[in-house]
Amino acid sequence: MESNQATVQTKQVSFRRVSWSFPTVNCPRCGRDAPRVWDATRVAIDIDLDQPIVLAVEVSVHVCATCGRMFRAQPPFLRPRAIYTRRVVQKAVEAVFCDGMAVRCVPDRLARDFWIKPDEKMVRLWCSAYAAAIDFAVDYQPWVVTNFSGMLCVDEVYQETSRCYCRRSRRAGW
Ligand SMILES: [Zn+2]
């Protein structure tokens, strides 16, 4: 979509709310059932055929009564503390390992094709993880609960701090 203002480029994006919340989850430390205490929202970036997707992933937070550990339910499509989904990682890794592209060229390619631009250091980390045989092939579609479109400034898509995306999600009304 074209912008009327020459200095501000905007891009159509999809917003999806994804629920990964459960009444109980096995404690990662002791293996007992740990009940949900509340939900927290993680914000992540995914790609589609022609536009980026901003995900608000609601994950349940649990406290284990046996060992006292507090933890979040971990969605399989998003690594702990990650902002980009595994599908984004997969596209980057495929560019390097299937298409033979140099790692330094991958951010520009993702920016051109999908309007997202992770930095080169991050792409290198993803390629190392791939070389260590980590499985990226997990999708979140079954857990999408709402889906709508909006506009995002391109400059802000390129920011990579979660704070930026949290601010964006509040403005989008999440
Ligand atoms: Zn426990």
Written overview of the protein:
The chain is α+β, with helices and mostly antiparallel strands and 174 residues long. Helix content is 27%, strand content 31%. It contains five helices and six strands, in the order E-E-E-E-E-H-H-H-E-H-H. The protein has helices spanning 86-97, 106-114, 120-131, 154-157, 162-171, and strands at 10-20, 24-26, 33-47, 52-63, 70-72, 144-153. Strands 1, 2, 3, 4, 5 and 6 form a six-stranded mixed beta sheet that branches. The longest helix has 12 residues, at 86-97. 28% of the residues are buried. The structure holds zinc ion. Residues 27, 29-30, 32, 64, 66-67, 69 line the site of zinc ion.
Write the SSE topology.
Layout: E1 10-20, E2 24-26, E3 33-47, E4 52-63, E5 70-72, H1 86-97, H2 106-114, H3 120-131, E6 144-153, H4 154-157, H5 162-171
Parallel strand pairs: 1-4
Antiparallel strand pairs: 1-6, 2-3, 3-4, 4-5
Helix pairs in contact: 1-3
The structure holds zinc ion.
Determine the strand fraction and express it as a percent band: 25-35%
Give the SSE order as H and E letters: EEEEEHHHEHH
Q: How many structural domains can be distinguished in the coordinates?
A: 1
Strand element count: 6
Q: Return the average pLDDT rounded to an integer.
A: 76
The rough form would be described as globular
Summary tags:
globular, alpha+beta, 174 residues, six-stranded mixed beta sheet
Give a brief description:
This protein is α+β, with helices and mostly antiparallel strands and 174 residues long.
